[in-house]
Amino acid sequence: MPHTPEHRRWFSEEVQPHEPILRSYLRGSFPAVRDVDDVVQESYLRIWRTHLSTPVRSARAFLFTVARRLALDWVRRNRTAPFLSEREAGGLEVVEEKPSAQEQIDTEEKIEVLAEGLVALPRRCRDVIVLYRLKGLPRQEVAQRLGISPKTVDEQAARGVRRLEEFFRAQGYQRLFER
Q: Does the global pTM surpass 0.85?
């Protein structure tokens, strides 16, 4: 694998500056992970390997996604907490119903990546995706607003979804947008 000065510069400017925030995120979201250093180093290794073969558009989002997955894998492998029965769990009170810090970061990452993908689309395709897929406007209304036929709305929506999927795959987020 080539280790050019350009690759090293990219790593030192685009990846390493996020290390303090990444460590804080891992400690706060995954207190059961005993060795945060291992997760950070493995995350670095994976983002480096990916960058050598495929350009990574958002190093921060990719780094946090890789680290989160590694931490979740570690937690799953080392799970020792007993499970509560349904009867026992029914007595527990929910203290707060807002999303956890991890869920909020996950959502923010998804929004950042989606925004990058939308910006990469041709204008008409982006307009159709925003109005038809994201805002949920009826096909006929989208067609009228954009001055195109309803069939063109369908074609542009399908083309936009394909391009976004390709974009997410290229960025290493093939599973990020699954439900």
A: no
